[in-house]
Design brief:
It contains three helices and two strands. By secondary structure, the chain is an alpha+beta fold.
C-alpha cells in the first residue's frame, strides 16, 4: 500500500525533452510514485510541454531557499 508523505505544497514543472519520471522526481526530492499519484498518470512516458504538479517536502525548500 502506498502511504502519502506530508507535503508542504505542489509546484508546477513543465516537462522538457529528455525528462523522465525518475529524473523529475529526483530534482524535487520526490519519488516517481509521488508524481504518478499527484498527477493521476495513466502512462509513464512524459511528453514535452506537459505540466506536472510535483509534491514537494520541506527538505526541497531547505535545499533551495537562499537568504
Amino acid at each position: 500500500m502506498y502511504r502519502r508523505k506530508h507535503y508542504a505544497k505542489l509546484i508546477a514543472h513543465i516537462v522538457r525533452p529528455g525528462d523522465t519520471l525518475k529524473k523529475v522526481a529526483r530534482q524535487y526530492h520526490a519519488t516517481p510514485l509521488d508524481l504518478i499519484v499527484a498527477n493521476q498518470l495513466q502512462h509513464l512516458e512524459l511528453k514535452p510541454g506537459t505540466v506536472l504538479m510535483v509534491p514537494v517536502t520541506k527538505a526541497y525548500y531547505e535545499g533551495h531557499l537562499r537568504f
